[in-house]
Amino acid sequence: MSQPLVTLTEIKEYIGLVGTADDSLLASIASNATAVAERHSGRVLAVTSNVTRYYSTDGQARLVVHDRPFSDSSRVVTLSGVTMTEDTDVWFIPDRRNGDITADIQLNYFDTATPGWYLREFDWFDRNLDSPRAHQGTPNDLRITGVEGHPQITGDTRLALLELCSWLYFRSKSGASGLAVVATDIDLSDTPTVFRQWVEHWRVRTAVSLI
Fold first, then answer.
1. pTM (whole model) above 0.70
2. With the C-alpha atoms ordered 61, 64, 69, 72, is the resulting torsion angle positive or negative?
3. What are phi and psi of 161, to 5 degrees?
4. Averaged over 104-122, what is the pLDDT?
5. What angle do CA 7, 48, 90 make, to 5 degrees?
6. Which residues contact 177 (CB under 8 A, 6 or more apart)?
7. For residue 52, how many other CB atoms are within 10 A of its CB?
């Protein structure tokens, strides 16, 4: 199960529940709601430390990656085996929805159409930039290690998750067998309007290759 991003207390207050009879069900729903949100939006919301992911840049100067804090002192980025320096030859772009998060990386753009372009880079020899194969999209050439996810979720994200939890709860109580357990199989069109609007606003497509 995914790490729940809204607490049991928050869900019960949102739904208007008292007592503890459904606490186990609500705890399951909270975890599954996070999984549903991540599945439909393409985002990584739950926080995990020391996560390594590989991406294939395909020679692009900019690409979408999995969500990470905008600032992370533990983060290490390597491109084609060379460790990159943030804000010097690799840049993480603040997310337009939440400036404390980044899911967009800008790599130093190499103008390979200009003769001797690689001479502008001080370590061009070590990085083999004069090779005709340089920066033509070697598979899994970008590696990012560090914290992944959203340390703090935004108000609209919290509301969308609470609305989804409420919907899952009442559907489960009405006899929809297994809905709270296999929540990630739910079709987006069946979910509440508030949640669908959140997905539309937050959805991204990453260039992930493997973890």
1. yes
2. negative
3. -70, -40
4. 68
5. 130
6. none
7. 12
